[in-house]
Design a protein that fits this description.
This protein is an alpha+beta fold and about 230 residues long. The longest helix is centred in the last third of the chain and has 22 residues. The protein contains 3 helices and 13 strands, in the order ββββαββββββαβββα. Strands 1, 2, 3, 4, 5, 6, 7, 9 and 12 form a 9-stranded mixed β-sheet that branches. A two-stranded antiparallel sheet has the order 8-11. Strands 10-13 form a two-stranded parallel ribbon. The two termini are about 25 Å apart.
Amino acid sequence: MIPNNRFELKQTSDHICVSFSTEHPVLSSAVFNGGGCTASNILIMKVAENFEDKKQVAVKPEKTLAEYCRQIQLSGTTVGMMTAASLESFRQVSRSSQGVKITAMVTAGISNARCAGDRAEWRTFQTDTTLTGTINIIILTTATMTPAAMVESLLLAAEAKTVAMRELGVKSLVSGKIATGTGTDAIAIANGVGPETIRYCGKHVLFGEMLASVVIEAITESLYVKLDLKSSR
């Protein structure tokens, strides 16, 4: 485990787990305890590419995650995501300024690359749970964000992901347009407990610049090997 102020990071061949010393408000699109909640952990669980064909996990992803959390003895509420991408893609990038720190943690695969607005292959409002090529993003900060700022941070992180896709030249497998992500991406933002209160985190303010830059760098570094590119960083 790697201690880092108020959280510990544990990486194994089966998962990435961020555990907080005290519960933190988390806003996410995660499949397990997604939405808004107060959490003790954020987990990215590795699954096989043929996840849906595995008899032992022929249940809803949230049930699989709940059982896995019990197996590894996580206490408290856990926000859980899944990926079929290699956990060797994990990258962590941080920025600090004026007493505020922002960290982005990413696992990334792009075999499921899509552009927003592509024709969906599933023509109903229900979908399967295919997890191939997912980009998962965890964002932590020492600052305290207002509820509106937390929502804005999700928007900015999604924009930053699109910038990384554009700079890397990743194309949608459906339309051939520059991808804006994959079909199964997830983002989790954990609020901090520091003295600095963040009310705005858009592109006009330092917090927004820092947040976007860590997401772009983490995704870019995560995908360099997969895309057989040489990093300039």
